[in-house]
Amino acid sequence: MKIERIEIHPLVGKLDQPFGWSQRWTNERGTQVVRIFADNGAYGWGETGCGPNALADAARNLIGENPERIGAIWQSIVNPNYQSGGYAGPASNIASAVDMALHDLVGRVRGKPVYELLGGKVRDRICAYATGLYYVPSDLEDKTWSDFREEAQGYVDDGFSGMKMKIGGLTLREDIDRIYALREQVGDEVRIMVDANEAYDPMTAIQASYQMADADVTWFEEPCSSRADEDNLLVTSRSPVPTSGGESASTRREVARILKNRVFDIIQPEIVNVGGISELKLSASMAEACNVRFVPHFWNTAISFSAILHTLATVAQSPPAHPKEPYVNEPVTEFDQTPHPIRENLTDPIFKQTESHVTVPDKPGLGVEVDEDALAHFRQGDAIIVR
């Protein structure tokens, strides 16, 4: 079996209403979807955020390779960047999409779900929290946060056990007020997480952590610039709220650096950045060995979400000596709920949660199929095909 061709589909979906976070506002969502075909007609899906031209350049070197040699192909993409100090950059994004697609392809060929390729699952469903509560235009005027409260109540009504909100895009006082408004709205039993998206310097982040602590915040995500280890470590050492980060980490090498230096209390690799299923699995094992909580980041479509579910299905309870409890010793994943036309239409299934858990697919490969009509609808121009 050999790789015969690779398709690259740049997708963009327009939003009905813009939303924002500390860094910017957006009126669209996008992703790059990759399909790898073998010469026997089998194929697999992957996705990432890097540009289509970089993906195409890398794809040309993969034609004729055996798709079952997932590790060797991964190394051929990433290892030429080894001397960049562990930061593989676009190569890691490319490898993420290719790695997902190869796992999907090989699983389909062997008639096995991806979790079987990873050693077999130890759980049938994964706990998920809702990510939403971004800034919307009304937040700039309505300081009672009525739309914000309504959105939060919707997640409670849907059965989510936790939710994550954005901070850093308003004044510190306003954002602290929103945190306490959220706690008031959802009650004491629902977990609250806050994400600053690198908004603060260390002193402001520490100040914010003390001001939010009485709202019983489960974690404070990306308080400072994501690669400013000293700044984040200072916040971690002084914050009464656990810190988290690592969504931009590139390969196991950056994850290892973060874990070794205890930069965050919780590490959150993003599967489309870190290097795909292979690196997410390795990152989970390293986090377990370092006794750092592991909570993958997610902000794309069901292709990568399914890849996260398959990976977490195989991750050990950590530590194993206590009753199983999400957020404590059982895996939890982010489940983006913000508007995303592509995510909402591209695949079958479009994942749903029940009682804050998502069932791991049990069909061969990733267990998701892409709707060709939706693929064509959201694609920007023609697909890039490499043979």
Features:
387 residues; alpha/beta; Enolase-like, domain 1; TIM Barrel; 2 domains; 9-stranded mixed β-sheet; 13 helices
> What is the CA-atom radius of gyration, in angstroms?
20 Å
Average pLDDT, rounded to a whole number, is 96
CATH topology of the largest domain, which one?
TIM Barrel
Distance N to C terminus? 15 Å
Please name the CATH architecture of the largest domain. Answer: Alpha-Beta Barrel
Structural class: alpha/beta
Number of separate domains: 2
What share of residues are in beta strands? 15-25%
General shape: globular
Provide the helix percentage: 25-40%
Number of strands: 15
CATH class of the largest domain, named: Alpha Beta
Order of helices and strands: EEEHHHHEHEHEHEHEHEHHEHEEEEHE
Unreliable stretches covering 5 or more consecutive residues: none
Oligomer state of the chains in this structure: single chain
Largest sheet: number of strands, sense, barrel closure: 9 strands, mixed
Q: In the CATH hierarchy, what is the superfamily of the largest domain?
A: Enolase-like C-terminal domain
Number of helices: 13
How would you describe this structure to a colleague?
The chain is α/β, with parallel strands linked by helices and 387 residues long. The chain folds into two domains: 3-111 and 369-386, Enolase-like, domain 1 (2-Layer Sandwich), CATH 3.30.390; 117-359, Alpha-Beta Barrel (TIM Barrel). 35% of the residues lie in helices and 21% in strands. The protein has 13 helices and 15 strands. The chain has helices spanning 52-59, 70-78, 90-110, 114-117, 146-158, 172-186, 202-212, 229-238, 251-260, 271-274, 277-289, 302-313, 372-378; strands at 3-20, 25-38, 43-48, 125-131, 162-166, 191-195, 217-221, 243-245, 266-267, 293-294, 332-336, 347-348, 357-359, 369-370, 384-386. Strands 4, 5, 6, 7, 8, 9, 10, 11 and 13 form a nine-stranded mixed sheet that branches. Strands 3-2-1-15 form a four-stranded antiparallel sheet. A two-stranded antiparallel sheet has the order 12-14. Helix 5 (146-158) runs parallel beside helix 6 (172-186). The chain starts with a strand and ends with a strand. The model has no long low-confidence stretch (mean pLDDT 96).
